[in-house]
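I am still getting used to backbone structure tokens and would like to learn alongside you. To get us started, please write out a protein record for me. Once you have written the record down, we can walk along the chain together.
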Amino acid sequence: MEIDDLPYEKLKRLLKEDHAEISLNLRIAALFLVVYENLKELITDRVRDFFTNEWRSIDGELVGIPGKEYASLLNGKGVFRACRDFHLEMGAISPDDNQLIDRFIKYRGEVAHELYAILLDDKKAALDLQLLFQAHLLAKKIDRWWILNFEVPLNEDLVDQSIDEEKVASGRQLFLDQLMRVALKDIFELVEEEADGS
């Protein structure tokens, strides 16, 4: 049987050493995992830190101990759900953002558990790059909200300063921006070429 006789287009391209598509999909899949972990940690860690009022050295590492308010916030809920609800109540995220988080978490689970099929099964749709970007932008929005509402007001040097809110980001979010630019460089270049050609 020749490669061209195979019924699966994705497999044919792989066997013919056309690795561009599979390489891109592997990079996108990896970014889904990274963006998910970043969003999850951002949502939970920011709230936990907000309610932390005591620090202890445990095994040589400084660890924050949240106060009673944090335990009250959890009140039988899972940590992630309780922290999402806190963000919603505080206005850091909107109901639409909350729905986006649900969609992103569900889809990220599919990517993690069905990656083999996504890579090789012609019936499986391409990875949802738009959803990846939306989740990444949401993480940046949450990060910016915490900086503008809590970090800037507590910094005397910044209180009366004019701040371009769109440019506010933590080092972690800037690193993730760069990681996405590097991982998806070929996609961004293609989009720029198409924009220049139109």
User: Anything to note?
Assistant: Helices lie at 9-15, 20-50, 68-74, 79-90, 95-120, 129-154, 171-183, 185-197. The chain has a mean pLDDT of 87. The chain has one domain: 3-49+92-197. The chain is about 70% helix and 5% strand.
